[in-house]
Amino acid sequence: MHGPLRTAIDDIAAAASAFRAWDDQGRIAAVGTGWGDALTDLKDHLAEHAKGLRLLADGHSITDTDVRDCFEGW
Protein backbone atom coordinates (compact mmCIF):
# COMPACT_ATOMS: atom_id res chain seq x y z
CA MET A 1 0.00 0.00 0.00
CA HIS A 2 2.95 2.36 0.50
CA GLY A 3 3.49 2.83 -3.23
CA PRO A 4 -0.11 3.63 -4.21
CA LEU A 5 -0.63 5.90 -1.20
CA ARG A 6 2.64 7.76 -1.89
CA THR A 7 1.55 8.20 -5.54
CA ALA A 8 -1.87 9.50 -4.45
CA ILE A 9 -0.29 11.98 -2.03
CA ASP A 10 2.15 13.20 -4.70
CA ASP A 11 -0.62 13.51 -7.30
CA ILE A 12 -2.77 15.55 -4.93
CA ALA A 13 0.15 17.87 -4.15
CA ALA A 14 0.81 18.31 -7.89
CA ALA A 15 -2.85 19.08 -8.56
CA ALA A 16 -2.90 21.67 -5.75
CA SER A 17 0.22 23.30 -7.25
CA ALA A 18 -1.40 23.44 -10.68
CA PHE A 19 -4.24 25.57 -9.27
CA ARG A 20 -2.06 28.13 -7.47
CA ALA A 21 -2.84 30.84 -10.05
CA TRP A 22 -6.60 30.51 -9.58
CA ASP A 23 -8.56 32.90 -7.35
CA ASP A 24 -9.65 30.03 -5.09
CA GLN A 25 -6.16 28.57 -4.87
CA GLY A 26 -6.17 28.76 -1.04
CA ARG A 27 -9.22 26.54 -0.74
CA ILE A 28 -7.95 24.18 -3.42
CA ALA A 29 -4.56 23.89 -1.68
CA ALA A 30 -6.33 23.24 1.65
CA VAL A 31 -8.31 20.38 0.11
CA GLY A 32 -5.12 18.90 -1.32
CA THR A 33 -3.34 19.22 2.00
CA GLY A 34 -6.28 17.71 3.86
CA TRP A 35 -6.44 14.69 1.57
CA GLY A 36 -2.67 14.29 1.70
CA ASP A 37 -2.73 14.34 5.51
CA ALA A 38 -5.62 11.86 5.60
CA LEU A 39 -3.86 9.45 3.25
CA THR A 40 -0.64 9.73 5.26
CA ASP A 41 -2.56 8.93 8.46
CA LEU A 42 -4.21 5.96 6.74
CA LYS A 43 -0.81 4.66 5.60
CA ASP A 44 0.58 5.00 9.13
CA HIS A 45 -2.41 3.28 10.73
CA LEU A 46 -2.30 0.40 8.26
CA ALA A 47 1.38 -0.13 9.07
CA GLU A 48 0.62 -0.10 12.82
CA HIS A 49 -2.20 -2.62 12.43
CA ALA A 50 -0.07 -4.88 10.25
CA LYS A 51 2.64 -4.84 12.92
CA GLY A 52 0.05 -5.70 15.56
CA LEU A 53 -1.25 -8.61 13.52
CA ARG A 54 2.29 -9.91 13.03
CA LEU A 55 2.91 -9.71 16.79
CA LEU A 56 -0.38 -11.47 17.44
CA ALA A 57 0.53 -14.33 15.12
CA ASP A 58 4.22 -14.55 16.05
CA GLY A 59 5.01 -18.08 17.24
CA HIS A 60 1.42 -19.22 16.99
CA SER A 61 -0.48 -21.38 14.61
CA ILE A 62 -3.34 -19.01 13.89
CA THR A 63 -6.15 -19.27 11.38
CA ASP A 64 -8.21 -16.64 9.62
CA THR A 65 -11.07 -17.54 11.95
CA ASP A 66 -8.89 -16.84 14.99
CA VAL A 67 -7.93 -13.43 13.61
CA ARG A 68 -11.56 -12.61 12.79
CA ASP A 69 -12.64 -13.57 16.30
CA CYS A 70 -9.99 -11.25 17.80
CA PHE A 71 -11.36 -8.25 15.90
CA GLU A 72 -15.06 -9.04 15.86
CA GLY A 73 -17.08 -6.14 17.17
CA TRP A 74 -14.49 -3.41 16.50
N/C terminus separation: 22 Å
Total domains: 1
Number of strands: 0
Biggest sheet statistics: none
Radius of gyration (Å): 19 Å
Rounded mean pLDDT is 78
Percent of residues in helices comes to: over 70%
Q: From the helix content, strand content and strand pairing, which structural class follows?
A: mainly alpha
Count the DSSP helices: 3
Q: Could you say which overall geometry the principal axes of the C-alpha atoms support?
A: elongated
Query: Which residue ranges are poorly predicted, with pLDDT under 50 across at least 5 consecutive positions?
Result: none
**Hey, roughly how much beta strand do the residues contain?**
under 5%
Looking at how many chains there are and whether they match, the oligomeric state comes to: single chain
User: From N to C, what is the helix and strand string?
Assistant: HHH
Please tell me about this protein's structure.
- The protein is mainly α.
- It has one domain.
- The protein is built from three helices and no strands.
- α1 packs antiparallel against α2.
- The model has no long low-confidence stretch (mean pLDDT 78).
